[in-house]
Design brief:
Layout: H1 9-22, E1 24-28, H2 34-48, E2 51-56, E3 59-63, E4 82-88, E5 98-104, E6 108-110, E7 116-118, H3 126-131
Antiparallel strand pairs: 1-3, 2-3, 4-5, 6-7
Length: about 130
């Protein structure tokens, strides 16, 4: 909202933060002077690099593409839990197969028979350790 003081640096800063967070925002202006509101819309668009979308009454609409947020990718992260469906078919072909959903953690695996086994650290020989 832009009050009686007009466009102050604090208002411009808040509009800049809102455009970074949302991309498309509406700003309400408490002024009865239409040319002053149009000037505010043009000034905001020029200062912030935004596109003026609409000016309806006392409402100004601005748009600016949102900046890409960098995603940190930790290298030492292990796989998280996942949901696995275990399907067991009936011994006679007349019945439906049963489906069981199981949560498998990062250190577990599903064996051929549908058993969940914990992954073990492989034991390497002393010669291979010395070589590496």
């Amino acid at each position: 909202m832009i009050g009686n003081d007009g466009l102050t640096p604090a208002v411009v800063k808040e509009v800049h933060g809102a455009l970074n967070a949302h991309g498309l925002i509406k700003v309400r202006v408490f002024s009865d002077d239409r040319p002053a509101r149009e000037a505010m819309l043009a000034k905001l668009a020029d200062e912030l690099g935004a596109a003026p979308i609409q000016h309806i009454g006392k409402l100004l609409v601005l748009w600016r593409p949102m900046p890409e947020k960098p995603k940190p990718e930790p290298e030492d992260r292990k796989p998280g839990p996942r949901i696995v469906k275990l399907v067991s078919f009936s011994k006679s072909g007349n019945h439906r197969a049963t489906v069981k959903k199981v949560q498998v953690f990062g250190n577990q695996r599903v064996a051929a028979g549908g058993e969940i086994k914990r992954a073990r650290v492989r034991v390497t020989s002393q010669k291979k350790k010395a070589r590496d």
